[in-house]
Amino acid sequence: MSAVPSRLFARRPSWLGEFLVTERQAWIFVLKCMLAFYIAAWLSMLFQLEQPSTTMITVSIVMHPHSGMVLAKSFYRAIGTCAGSLCGVLLMAAFPQQRELFLLSLSLWVGLCAGGAVLYRNFMSYGFVLAGYTAAIVALPAINDPYTVFDSAMMRVSEVLLGIVVAGLVSDVVLPERLRQVLRRSAREHYAHFIDFARSSLGGVIPRAQMEQAHLHFVRAAVQIEDLRSSVIFEDPEARARSSRMQLLNVRYMAAATSFQSLHHLINRLQRGNHPRTAGALIKLYAPVGRALAPSPADQSKPRLLAERLAACEPTLPSLAAELREELRQDPELLLEFDSGAALLYRFVSELRDFTALEATLRETQGGFAGSVERVSFKRANDYAAPLVSVLRTFLTMVTLSVFWIKTGWPFGPNAMLLATIFSGLLATSPSPLAATANTWIGYAVGMLACYAVVFWLMPGSDGFLMLILVTAPLLALGPYLTTRNATLPGIGAGYTLGFVYILALKNPMVYSPEHFFNDAIASLFGLMMSGAAFMVIPTVIGTAWLRRRQLVQLRRQVTMAATAPLQGLVYSFESVNRDLFHQIVQFTPPDSQEQRSLLAWALAVHDSGRAVIELRHDMQHAELPPPVREAMQLAVETLGYLYDSPDRDRWQVADHAVDQAITLTTQTMPQARASCRPALAHLLQLRTALRDDESALAPYIAKVPESAHAP
Amino acid sequence: MPREIALADALVPGILLVYLGCLVVLLLIDTIVGRYGLYRYVWHPSLFRVAVFFVLFGAAGLLLYP
Prior knowledge:
The complex is a heterodimer. Chain A is mainly alpha-helical.
């Protein structure tokens, strides 16, 4: 029975199948939006709220094709709404007679909210946009009549919250599109990709370019999984119970990827530095790991099996390492390199084992877990320049509009200010706000034109709620449909929907007033234009070369942080901030440019050295380490942090000298305190190879060192 | 249960507090059910959740405001 439809599918050309799938998703979304719009309008009329249109505007902002997103947005949106209305009431209470002071402080509040929207790039940004918007929507209409501000605030908050609840319920209950599946799928894909990469690199040498691409992939994977996880926990209680494990999994993934990369850098450097035998020995040492990762093809994707095989392979490694060490030329320098490579390999294997074991536990168990795990969190990197600029820009926009309003006595000034408030918050995060504003403006204007036809030609003849639906639905449905085409027509759909429901201004009973319609339309288009003009006067810094350079400096200083910050939880925050920063920069870097290559080189260098510095600092905690050695190591760590703070030739020399000194000292004390010196020595060597790598980002600062002391 | 409650001198409908209380109870049930993975035995988890909320809120409302 199942063969027939599959044959039908097979006969259908693939583009048609794809088309049908995307169309299906689009029309489901349109259906859900329509349902949410009309339920919201009906309920707000039933509850006799003043402006059902506010509820509908809320729905139009909240609806999103993924349900997890809606709930997440709704959550922060509700908080933002409450904070904003509170602030509106407070401002009104503080300055009931002085409108200049009132407008000034309102502008400041809206500006701060826009800044918050830029600073927090996830769902919290919505909360900030709405805190500004609600303050404006509550306070502005009441400015001539301060006594009504409390009632107005109550009404607006009820309307907005009703809209939030309806939109959340509809998208959660009616044909939900689960982000959880997306998370699961992409987590598995990234897992499989990483394991494949680790297995196929059995041959040892990976070209630098491929390594950089892989790094890009690993970083994207880590950030993407974290983004998905943080929104999935809002849609699924089961995911919430597993959330901390998923975070831990991501952290282990990042740690394993870093060790893997460091190991391969070392092998590549050895190959280039005419030590193919040492490199070959390391590759041979890697072979059992590759074999452990390659069970029979049928079982390849089973993480439990891989974890067991890795755990079995782990104890055999030291004896193999000892054998291989015997065969090498007995040159202390090369043996040291081999030891540091072996230490890296052990670290990688144990991290990989933890990673696969956790992945297996996550796949095997349903629901929550007994006991708790280590709490780790994915730290984000924030730069304060972009939010400050947007605070300033929004503040100036609002002040300009207020002055214009006061000086001209324009009755529709509040409407213009309201629209400017919404869009300066929403568009502040966009990397190309001018184009986004233009698109939204066009969509907004078209939406209002469509609404004109509906309001003045179709609606007067209609009667009752059913007729209202029949009359408005066909043209309103265009908006959500255009939203699903966001890739080709960015911003148009959102503008259309918002323009339509804003100017529809649904009331019970409906008020038909063409001059109010036109005045309001002109005011809102003017407000939108003003927020666009503000982006011309004070351009956005997001995605500009200036901000990228700033962030690159911040990325470099990660090593400084690794060298100085308290050790507690440092590995996790280092790995996550690193990736988040790198991800932010790489988004706006033109691909295949000189800039991207330099960025990748820096990212790899920071990654490699920063992690080694942290590991070294862990080794320095060892109680048996003789104090002079520890001091030398501390000096090496400090000079390295100093070097990455702002690299130049002198600092490189100082750092190189300090690391060298520490290595010499550690090698000398090695016979007395083997247990404490051994791991530290490996990390010191790793740091030195990273410093002297002539393909890394540090290459321009490398002063020719007198190699005589070490050369064989 | 009074119909309106003064919170910081603002009169708030009592049913709103009941609503918020029910949300908290729902969140608790949700966490427990999610923790033991019991949603696997339900056809449509979010519909189930909404229904549980309606039952809670309806029962509490009808009991407190007869």
